[in-house]
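Methods — Computational structure assignment.
A single polypeptide chain was analysed. Its primary sequence is given first, followed by the predicted tertiary structure written as structure tokens.
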Amino acid sequence: MHGAEQVTRFTGGTHYVLDEELAKIVNITMALEMPLLLKGEPGTGKTMLAYAIAESLKMPLIVLNVKSSMKLIDALYQYDTLTRLNDSRFGDSSRDVSKIEDYIKMGKIGQAFVSDERTVLLIDEIDKADTDFQDDMLDVLDQMEFDILEIDKTMRAQQRPVIIITSNAKKDLSDPFLGRCNFHHIAFPDPDLMREIVQVHFPDVSQELLDAAVNAFYRLREFKEMEKKPATRELINWIRALNADPDFRVKELTKGDIPFLGVLFKKSPDYALAQRYVSRSRL
């Protein structure tokens, strides 16, 4: 599998603005067939990068959403003992209860391994898992195989997936884990890059609205005491809301009157903080 085929270069997606440094690390990661670990605050596009790679390279996307209680075996495969028991008791199934393999269902990593075509495997929010899960998972991804104990069978990957792993940096990852990945920190976009991102989503946006909305957005992100700052997703939805309101006028933003704060802020303390700021701005 290593170096067996030429990988098409990734240059960005339909709705994903890609800076040069990130493009380089994505392409070198695919060439080296290593997992790419992405860190950054929520809303910086870590998860969407995997979607953009899948879209650009025309590969299926498989998403493993990591949970704190998840065991590695759940991401590999599940043995449906309950269904087999019911089939054996009631005998109304087309499955042969003596064939345990019929009751094995692939988990997300297993699906990426058995796929006949190369996939993009997104392992989202790995920092939610414990250290054993993280290290054991990378063992499997290094070897590109795992054992199904119930049927004494080794599952080997048909194609090595493009592996994107995200972390919100809520918990430190182990040194062995970090050592086996390429790494990139996605910083929150600066205003100029954010304008490019907005224009991708709204090609016909006026320069006046673009500047006023982006400027207001970054002013609202400045509060240090804010628990959850609005991210790119909130900005896009906010501009969508502004465009949908027939009574909205851009001059409202330039005067400090900021409508639809509930689109930008999802936590009550942050919402109240933004309301106080807007009230002071109107004075």
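Note: The chain has two domains: 20-185, 191-282.
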